[in-house]
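Recap from last week: sequence in, structure out.
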Amino acid sequence: MGIGGKTDAVHEATESARRSRARPSTLAALVVAAGLVTFGACGSRTPVHAPVAPPAPKVTDLGTLGSNRYTMPSAVSGSIVVGESGTEEKAGDHHAFVYDLAAPAPRMVALGTFGGAQSRAVAVSGTIVVGMAETAPVAPVAPVAPVAPVAPAPGEHGFAYDVAAASPKMIDLGPMVVTAISGHLVVGYTTTASGHERAAAVDLAAPSPTVQDLDIAQTGDMYSLATAVSGTMVIGRINEDDGAEHVFAYDLGAATPKLVDLGHGTPSGLDGAIAVGDVFVAADNGLHAYAWDLGSNPPRAFDLGTLGPPGGGYYSRATGISGHVVVGTASTQPAIGCNQRSAPDCTEHAFAYDLRAADPALRDLGTLGGTTSQAAGISGNLVVGAADATSGRIHAFVYDLGGAHPAMRDLGALPGDDSSTAIAISANTVIGLSGEELVVRHGIGGGVFRPVAWTLAKA
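Predicted structure tokens:
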């Protein structure tokens, strides 16, 4: 699965979490009962045995780099978790970290900076971690007028860090914002002197890796951002002169790479030749989850619909893709009067959508007994996210789409905590947060939380 489709969402959640410490309202709870008896032919009663519960996952508190104020995991690849954490050196300073759950003595390791105070890891592919780090501040220039000099803000460069290297160190990728990595290809964007963003990529396998702007024709106030990569395929968003945002695809492996405009929308994920995102649909006056098959010429677009009738005012959003299965969140009631990206009053459920099904449709994954659930990601058949429990608190969940008895499974929280949320999954490793009165609404906010990893028992 392409890593990094969710980088923007995690970064926005990170900033929200830093600012928010408000105590959220208790969520309404709805107990859902499940029967264990079905009826066969002629009305005969056929007993259905309750499925055997799988072994409980191993739960690991990832800790911090020395500060209990803030730690945020952002991505996982196999056993390697990355993110950023506060340090003891100075209040407000954060450094990128890596945590290898498979190491003989697992611990959080700081990756440092390029001389500045801050760094953050945003994505990982195999053993390669990528992110941004501040450079050393430039010495203040003596002012002409008799006023105090002001030190300019430090610059920020992209970095790559190979955990498996004999002597791991940050490799400076130059001035760019990194959003994703797949294999040896890193993508993101640079900023021109005029303040316009330009989609960019770096090939770590090149003799001298350097940032290259993608060959995307842009004029005026247009900008472009590369948001995800899988293999050599890149997707992102481009802003047109009229302010409209389009989704684009760009194959770095093509003989003559060129921009493919997929139309209006916002991208959210990519795996192989399948991209996913959201498109505004006028009939519902809201967003619909979409998928694009980049392997066809021209690319085919698929409106995944909603959990309600067409034109009924329902909405859906795609948050992840693995193979041919899309996951996301959809409203279970008309969304009139609510903000589809940030309103807690919109009742919604996690969904899965199999693009290869004979009669594809959104599959409602339900909740943990409450009213709301949201899918955060998928790896293989395993969907993760957060859902209301009967207690009224948010709990992280995993849902095995390929299981003999598919059902949403509560991953629980760290001892002493009453809530949790899952952020991402890779193979059988889930990462997220555990805390008190944690609430999730298209992001992370509220309460005090700790980074956590759940290692699921392998089938």
